[in-house]
Amino acid sequence: MRELYQRLQSLFVLGELTEQRANLFFITVEKDRLRPLITHLRDREGLRHLVLLTAVDWLEEGQFQLTYLLCDRLTRRDLGLRVMLDRANPVMESIHDLWPTAATYQRELREMFGIDFPGSPRLDEEFILEGWNTTPPYRRDFDTLEYARSQYAERAGRETRDPETHMRAQLYPESN
Amino acid sequence: MDFDWMKIPYSLLTLFIVVNYGMILNAFIQKIGARVGRRHGIPIWQNYADLIKNYSIRSSITHGVMFYLGPVFRLSGGVGLLLFVPTIYGSYMFSNMSFAGDLILALYFVFFGTLGMALGAAESGHPHAAIGITRGLSQVTAAELPFALAVFAVALQYQTLSVTDIVAAQQGSFLNWTLFTNPLAVTAAMLSFLGSMMRPPFDVVLAPQEIPIGPPTEYHSSYLALMQTNRAIFPIAKIVIYMNLFFGGAASWPVFFLKVFCIYMISVLVGVVFPRFRVEQSIRWFLIWAVPVGILAVVLV
Amino acid sequence: MKPELEKRIVRTPDGQEFEVDPLRDYYCEAAPTVMPAAYGKIVEDLFNWARSQSLWILGFGTGCGAIEMRPLMTPRFDAYRYGVQWRPTPRQANLFIISGYLSTKTLKRAIRSYEQMQNPKYVVGLGSCTINGGMYWDSYNTIKCLDQYLPVDLYITGCMPRPEALLQGFEDLKKLIRAGKCEGANKYSENFDWYKANQKQVIHDWDMPDYNW
Ligand code: SF4
After folding, report:
1. Residue C136 lies in a domain
2. Could you tell me whether strands C55-58 and C84-87 are parallel, antiparallel, or unpaired per DSSP bridges?
3. Where are the alpha helices (DSSP H) in C26-103?
4. HSE of B237 in the Cβ direction (CA atoms, 13 Å)?
């Protein structure tokens, strides 16, 4: 894994490195440096499986983080590539031509986070939601609870208990 | 021609007996199937409850005239089949209209219901119904082929097309049954019988799990109830034909009940053992196994 | 609205042109009507008995509960002996079990299926999600109170109710039907506007006729 990193370092400009496990590394890369790197990894280094493509909303920093997780089945190692996007204008290059499955992930990200991937097939079709008309629901500035309250009728009389205190009172009444 | 008016109430009585027998027998057969699967199965009167329920549904919608006529055709197929063959041989009361029709008419009635169903279901405009119909018609046609061959063989053997005469020729000892005088024809016919009883392994057309329930997808309330009534009559009517042609007919009701039950059991036994065939598999099966036997039967007579 | 549902001009092969409005031409938009019990007491009692003994469930599973309905067909629970059967098409079914949480997307399908069922029809809400939202009470995409959108005859509580609870629920439903208390379909047509308003409040892209059967 280390030696892979060193090999990559001599070829590409890489950002921060996180060693999660001996066989799981994360590397941050610039937005427009991703494609050559990821193509190289797929074609030359045997990381041929795109495990997932997902996003994290760093609201405070004003950034979205995209994570491309690649896997090499033969040597059982995973490499994650992190790309930081500007939250105000989240656009990323599509990689559906490298992995056709990426198109589905990109549709989901488009719907749930509002990240745009120009050129990705069927990107603007509805993926899971139908007729969604406010902030994309996975963005952190979307207030789920408030939305659920205002949108869906509630039945009166619902109680919510803290599981820990409730179970303690149930199971060990003497400890209170 | 002077028509014997007393025939009409008598035929209605036959119909009544057969409907009830059919309902109970169907439930009983389902129970046997369930027991094989280690279940309790439906109560024996379940079919009656279903039937009343369906008649008591308050709303119903239609898709056009043929949609009405589909179940009616289907039912008349079953009733016609039953009435134009002698149910009880030698009984004035229960030989019904058998003087009027012959074997060819009966063959036609076997097919008539499916055809009517096809028209009706096609009118409903539901894609599942259309697919179900195509599959149903191809399978029934394939299954009908050996039966037709067997019928020709039998007609040649007895040199008549009248069902009554064929039954008459088989009386006496059971060694006179076609089953023993012409086993090849009977084999072919019984293979076809498996296919037309809508039980596994050939029930892909009507099985609720396949292409949602096939042709009757859109049918509901009273339409469905009519079809259920037919579901009770038709197998019995069909078995009556088989019984008359191949198993010596029946001379009294107890014999009738017993023989119908036994013939039905053949398809049930096969059904609980084998998994379901796909349509093209079953067509191939009929063409490879049943049709040659039928041809052989015709040739050898 | 989907493009195939929009009004458009169609040209026939021989050059005629006419306008097609799918929502009007392909569907019948008439609102449901109330259909009271039409016969005398004895007949209705017989009918109610038959209805209660022949519950045909629409094979439509939503949420986690669909998993708990399957065991009912197996030898262990065998719901068939209580006159319960599964039907693959809404036309023939008369019992709709909402088996758990309903996302708004599924709610749309559930409404369509419900409206295609024929008049004496029953809805059973299964699990706490249908009653008050259950563990999805703060979800952005699931409804919390089923009887705002469909007329519910019976709720079965639990998360998830065991198959035994379902069987018990069927028995209770039968008692209600026999007592003639399950007139959900009529309730639906009486309060049609109220139900529709509630439904349209949560379903934002309403791309079907108001009543589809
Ligand atoms: S009540 Fe529980 S088991 Fe049922 S759908 Fe809701 S979360 Fe799932």
Report:
1. yes
2. parallel
3. 41-53, 66-69
4. 30
Q: How far is CA A2 from the centre of its chain?
A: 25
On whether residue A166 sits in a domain, the answer given is: no
Full residue range of the structural domain in which residue C48 is found: 40-202
The β-bridge partners of A53 are: A68
Give the C-alpha separation, B273 to B195, whole Å.
15
Name the closest-CA residue to atom 6, ligand 1. C129
Q: What is the ipTM of this complex?
A: 0.79
- CATH number assigned to the domain comprising residue A131: 3.30.460.80
Verify B-A touch: 3 or more CB pairs within 8 A: no
Query: Would the pLDDT of C86 be above 60?
Result: yes
CA of B285 to the centre of ligand 1 (A): 46
| Whole-angstrom distance, CA of residue A134 vs CA of residue A123 | 18
How many Å apart are CA A139 and CA A113, to the nearest integer?
A: 6
The pTM score is: 0.84
According to DSSP, the residues that pair with C156 across neighbouring strands are C126
Is the C-alpha dihedral spanning B118, B122, B124, B126 positive or negative?
positive
Nearest Cα residue to C186 out of C22, C61, C38? C38
Domain count, chain C: 1
According to the per-residue pLDDT averaged within each range, which of A55-64, A142-151, B98-107, C197-206 is highest? A55-64
CATH number of the domain enclosing C190: 3.40.50.12280
Which residue's alpha carbon is at the smallest distance from atom 2 of ligand 1? C159
For residue C173, tell me if it sits in a domain: yes
Which residues of chain A make contact with C198, given a CB cutoff of 8 A? 153
**What is the span of the domain harbouring residue A134?**
2-153
Gap between the Cα atoms of B92 and B70, Å rounded: 33
- Is C8 contained in some domain? no
C139 closest CB neighbour out of A129, A148, A155 = A148
Contacts of C137 in chain A (CB under 8 A): 148, 154, 158, 160
Amino acid code (one letter) for B186? V
